[in-house]
Amino acid sequence: MDRTSSKLPIRIIPGNLETSVAIESWVHRKLAGAFHRYGSKMTAIEVHFEDVNGPKHGNNDTRCFMEARVNGRTPIAVTARSNDLYGAIDAAARRLNAALGRAIGRSDTRARHRFRHGRGLDAHGPLHATESSTVQLKPSVPAGQLSGERSVGGAKKVIIAGYGPVGRALADQLSKLGVPFTVIDSNPATARTQERLGISVLCGDTTNPDVLRAAGIETAAAIAITIPDGDDAVRACAAARRLASDIHIAARTTFLFQGFGALRAGANSITVEEIATAQAMAREVAAQVAGIGRIAQ
After folding, report:
1. How buried is residue 271: exposed, middle or buried, by Cβ count under 10 Å (0-12/13-18/19+)?
2. Which residues are CB-contacts of 154 (< 8 A; sequence separation ≥ 6)?
3. I want to staple 267 with a disulfide (CB 3.0 to 4.6 A). Which of 30, 69, 233, 262 is the partner?
4. Domains of the chain as residue ranges with CATH
């Protein structure tokens, strides 16, 4: 019988071999490292067992096949054989971990290389801990050429999707600039509170096309997707782009791979938290080390 893990998204399919709690624990133990490194970028792993020779016994007749489902990529599959199931699982797990490292590591290294060398980056000088790295693409509508129906009283209308700390900071800036905005937030309490404060707010799911239409996306100049769930942000980008082909979409994501998913889904710019954190920590540690070095001298 197929078994689905309650701890990790691992599906074990015994095939023509009998499994056990000990075998399943061994699978989890051997895949723990892969999940620690790449779990946020995987949706599931399937593990298949097979006795290659059936009733006949022979060397290396136990096979383990593992397939990892990786976000935005072709599934990564490996296989290994051994004299027993434990050995086959061990060998397959090592190969899968190496394959994931090659596939995901190369992609992330290239992306970070582009960030470090400023390809397509917003050139606003050094970042601070409260800021983020932003990738800018060519806007769908050039600056200063927004269509008339996307303006409100001469000012460009903006939708802020998500009214947490990021959304509120953006709202403050828009208010100072005199730019009208509408807020979408899924928390009814937040919506009620902000409505009492005079904020134009709609309670709903940003990935829902009906909610986006109700917020006025078809006539808005821009939408800032600040919701904290990066996967939902990617879906919201796709929904917004389908409804408004020329709107400027700015998206916040937690991880770099989600950011590139948002770009593929139609975002014009992304703000990536893990890059901002990495840069801020690198600067902070480097500054401390430099200070210690000066004291030592």
Report:
1. buried
2. none
3. 262
4. 3-114 (3.30.160.100), 120-282 (3.40.50.720)
